[in-house]
Each structure stands twice: as structure tokens, then as C-alpha cells.
Write a structure and sequence with these properties.
4 helices, mainly alpha, 137 residues
């Protein structure tokens, strides 16, 4: 009888742990939903749409080996805004504020495609920042 009670207690404890973990996951998703809705809404704004269009169709016309300095001011701001947006999303995923599957399901391919285009510019900018301590960079 004591063995049966012990087994029953162990099963009840395991079920409690599983249910608690499930409730925590659901609570985390519920808390991140308003954040995701705002982020996805921002991704659909005219400004970030223009930034994505420029990165895919216009960036190759400029000397990205000069970093942001190789771009006119308007285009520099567009690239910076989209890069910062994606960087912020990455930080939220890294710190588990939002679930990576939700972000990847909505933006996955577009983020990867944009990174392929922007990467040479970002790497050139990183090299320049490593050599210069100009706070405006």
C-alpha cells in the first residue's frame, strides 16, 4: 500500500511540474503577444517597407565598403532603421521575451535576405568603428 501511495505521489508531482511549465509557457506567450503585434505592425509601416525596398533594389548602387558613409543621408537612415529594428528583434529573441518560432514564422526569410545584402556594409562599418572613436559613428 505504501509503494502505491509513493508511486501515486510521484506521478502527481510529475503532472504538476508538467502543468506548471505549460502554464508558464502560455503566460509568456500571452505577455509577448502585445509586443509582437506592435513589432509586426511596425514592420508593415511605409518607412520600413521603403527601407526593405532600398536594401533589395538600391543598395548595390553604392560603395558599401565605406560603411554608412558610402550612403546618402536618407538611405543611410533607412538602412539604419531596418538594421536596428532587426537587431531589436534579435535581442528580444535572445532574452526569450518573444519566441523565435513566432518571429521566424513571420519574418524569417526577409531577415535573412536583408542580412545578406546589408552584411558587407555592416562589416565595413564595424571595421571603421574599431579604428575610430568618433561618437557619431
Amino acid at each position: 500500500m505504501e509503494v502505491a501511495a509513493l508511486i501515486f505521489s510521484a506521478v502527481a508531482l510529475a503532472i504538476s511540474v508538467i502543468m506548471t511549465r505549460r502554464q508558464l509557457a502560455l503566460a509568456r506567450h500571452n505577455n509577448s503577444l502585445p509586443v509582437l503585434i506592435d513589432l509586426f505592425r511596425e514592420h508593415r509601416t511605409a518607412r520600413l517597407f521603403e527601407a526593405r525596398q532600398f536594401i533589395h533594389n538600391g543598395l548595390q548602387k553604392y560603395d558599401v565598403s565605406r560603411g554608412y558613409a558610402g550612403l546618402p543621408e536618407r538611405q543611410r537612415e533607412l538602412v539604419r532603421d531596418l538594421a536596428c529594428y532587426y537587431d531589436n528583434l534579435g535581442a528580444l529573441v535572445l532574452h526569450e521575451v518573444v519566441d523565435v518560432e513566432l518571429i521566424a514564422g513571420y519574418l524569417g526569410g526577409s531577415v535573412v535576405a536583408a542580412w545578406k545584402k546589408v552584411r558587407p556594409l555592416v562589416e565595413a562599418e564595424r571595421q571603421m568603428r574599431a579604428r575610430h572613436t568618433d561618437p557619431r559613428r
